[in-house]
Amino acid sequence: MEDRRLIERVEELTAATRALAREVERLQQWHPLAGSIRHVLWRNFLRGVAFGLGQTVGAVLLLALLAWLLSQLQVVPVLGEWIARLLEAIQTAQKGLR
């Protein structure tokens, strides 16, 4: 009787271990470090490029907005002229990129 319970318990543990192994294999597909080192490096490279591009575009937009706001100020004429020249240079550069 006790042997039968022991055999049933071992079978339950074996089934649970197999289920756990299947789940671990499934989860490994979604883990960021799963796969080949080439794949991990490529993914991190693309992530870095996207991050750098996002920072650059964000900084350009923020500085353009700041320059436009400062050019609207009529209080400081010297600063307004400098900002106007800066805006012209930015617009010229943008036309050159198109």
How does this model look, in words?
There is one protein chain. With 98 residues, the protein is mainly alpha-helical. It has three helices and no strands. It has helices at 2-28, 37-71, 77-97. Helix 2 crosses helix 3. The longest helix has 35 residues, at 37-71.
Number of strands: 0
Unreliable sequence segments: none
User: Helix share of residues?
Assistant: over 70%
Order of helices and strands: HHH
What distance lies between the first and last C-alpha atoms, to the nearest angstrom? 85 Å
Beta percentage is under 5%
Q: Main β-sheet: number of strands, strand sense, barrel status?
A: none
Count of helical regions: 3
Over all CA atoms, what is the radius of gyration?
31 Å
**Would you tell me the overall average pLDDT?**
85
Q: Indicate the structural class.
A: mainly alpha
**Overall spatial form:** rod-shaped
List keywords for this structure.
single chain; 3 helices; mainly alpha; 98 residues; rod-shaped
Q: Can you summarize this structure?
A:
The protein has helices spanning 2-28, 37-71, 77-97.
